Amino acid sequence: MSETSPNTLQYRTDGPDDAPVLVLGPSLGTTWHMWDRQIPELTRQWRVVRFDLPGHGGAPAAPAPSVGELADRLLATLDELGVQRFGYAGCSIGGAIGADLALRAPHRLAALVLVAASPRFGTADEFRQRGAIVRANGLEPMARSAPERWFTPGFAAAQPAIVEWAVQMVRTTDPGCYSAACEALAAFDVRAELGRIGVPTLVLVGSEDRVTGPAEARTLVAGIPDARLAVVPGASHLAPVEQPAAVTDLLIRHLSSAWQPAADSSTGMAAPVPPPAPIPAPAPGPAPAGYGPPPVGYTPAPAPYPQAPTPAPAGYGYPGPIQPTGPTSPTGPTSPTGPTSPTGPTGPVAPTGPTGPFAPPAPAPVDLGAPVPAPAPAPVDLGAPAPVAEAEGPAEPPAQPVPLAPPLDTPVPSAPLVPPASEATGAEPEARRPDPYETGRPDAYEAGIRVRREVLGDAHVDAATEGADAFSADFQELITRYAWGEVWTRDGLDRRTRSAVTLTALVAGGQLEELAFHTRAALRGGMTPAEIREVLIHCAVYCGVPAANAAFRVAGRVVREETGAGGSGAGEDGGGEADARATYGE
C-alpha cells in the first residue's frame, strides 16, 4: 500500500514493472479489492495500478468535491509513479473519472473501459439526498442496502460471504468522504460532451443492473464516436465481482485490440501490445452457485472470494483472508493484513512526474530577439464629424468637433435638462429591462438559475418555473436574478452559513412554507439535523418561543422525510402545516 498526500490517492501496483500500465477505478463504497479476480489474468500483459477513493479502504479522509478533483488526484498519483500514458477501466464513479480523463487529458489515455457508468447518474436531487442521509445517520443505511444495489438476488442468496464483504466495505468508509462523493456525482453531467471523447471505448454493463443499466450504457455508446457495447448476462452493478470471467475476457479483448501506443517510448508503452495470452481452462467441476449464465464463448474463472462472513478490520474495507471456491491462481489476492500480491510493488514513491496533473505540451522554440512588427494604427481624424444615420424629417446639422479634454480654466456650459418623452407627452413610460452589457456586468440570471437548482433541487425549481403564468413570471425572474444570481453567488459566506442565516430569517418572519423549502435545501447542502436544531434553538431566544415552536414542527417533518430518521418535531401541538406551493415561492 502506498503512502499518500492530500492531492494524491492511495494505490497499489501488480504486474511487471516494464509492462504497459492499466489503471482500475473502483465504485462508490468499494475498495480496489473489487478487481481482485481480474488481477491474475491482467498482470500477464499489463502493470496494473489500482486506487482507492478518499476515505475508502483505509485511505486518508480528504474529501474531493468533484469528479474532476478525483481525476486530478489520480493524475498526480500517476505522475509520482512516472506514468504518462495508460489504459483505464473504471466502475460507476470510477467510470465517471475515466470519462473526465478522456475529456480533459485524452493524450494520456491509450484505451478506455466504462463499467456500470452513465453520462449523468440519476438526478442531482437523489445524490444530494443520499449525502444528507449519510450526514444524519452515518453509513449503516447505505451498507444495509448495498447488496440489493450491487448484486442479483440469486447471487446474493448463494454467496453470503461476498455479501458480508460488501457490507463491511461500506461500513468502514469515511462518512464525510462518502457524502462528498455523492455531491460529486450530483454535479457530474457530460451528456453534452460525449462527442468529444476520442479514445477507443468499451461500455460494459450488467444485464440486471438497476443503478446504471443498459439504457444508460446505450446513451454512452450513442454519444461516444468510437465506442461499443457489451452486456454481461446475469450481472448487476458490480459485474467484475459477480461475473469475473466474462468481465476479464471483455477487458483483455478490448484493451489488446484498441490500445493506442504512446509516442514517447520512455515509459515502455510505445511498443506494440502483445496479443492476449490464452486463458487456461479451469479444472472440471460445477460452476459456483448463484452465478448467472456467462456469455457464449466465455470460460469461467476461479472464484477466490470468501465463503463465510469474516469481520473486516477497523478502518479497512476487506473482510480478511480469501477462501477459494475452486482452483485458484497462485498469484491471487489475499488479506490486507498480509501481502496482497507477490507480484506488486508497494510503498511510498518519490515524486518524479510533472507538478501539475495536466502539464501542457512544450511550446515550439521562439526567437525572443527577433523584432515583432507592430500593426500600424489606422489614421483617425478627430475633427471629422461622426456619421449620422438617416432618419425621416429634416436633417440636423453635422456635429461639431469636440476636443478630447477642455482646458482646466475653461468653464463647461451645462446642458439644458430635457424631460423624458413620457413626461412631455403624458404617456406611460415603456418598461425596459436593463441591458447587462450597458452596465458592464454579466447577466445574473444564468448564474442564479444554476445556484437555485443546486440549493433547492431540480424538482422544486422546475415546479416553480413551469407553474409560473403571466401574472407570476416576472416575480420568478426577479428572485432568480437578484436573490440567487446576486446574493447567493457572493463569496463572503459559504452556502452552509447562508442556509443558517436564511433559516433564522424565515423563522423570524414566520414564513413556514419557505422554511420547509430551505430546511430541505440546508440538509442537501451539507448541514446536519443537529446543526439545524441548534439554529432553531437559537431562534427561540431571539425570535420568540412560539416562532421556534412552529419552526420545529416544519423542520422536523422535513428532516424525517429527507433522512428517514425517527423522532418528531419539538412543537407543543404536534400539528402540521399545509404543503408549500412552489408557484409563487422560491
TrEMBL record:
| Compositional bias segments (type: Basic and acidic residues) | 429-444
Q: Which InterPro entries match?
A: 4CMD/NDH-1_regulator, AB_hydrolase_1, AB_hydrolase_fold, AhpD-like, CMD-like
Q: Where is the Carboxymuconolactone decarboxylase-like domain?
A: 474-555
**Keywords on this record?**
Hydrolase
Could you tell me where the Pro residues compositional bias lies? 272-288, 302-312, 395-419
Highest taxon listed in the record's lineage? Bacteria
Stored Pfam families: Abhydrolase_1 (PF00561), CMD (PF02627)
> Which segments cross the bilayer?
none
Q: Where is this region: Disordered?
A: 263-288, 302-444, 563-586
Name the record gives this protein: Alpha/beta fold hydrolase
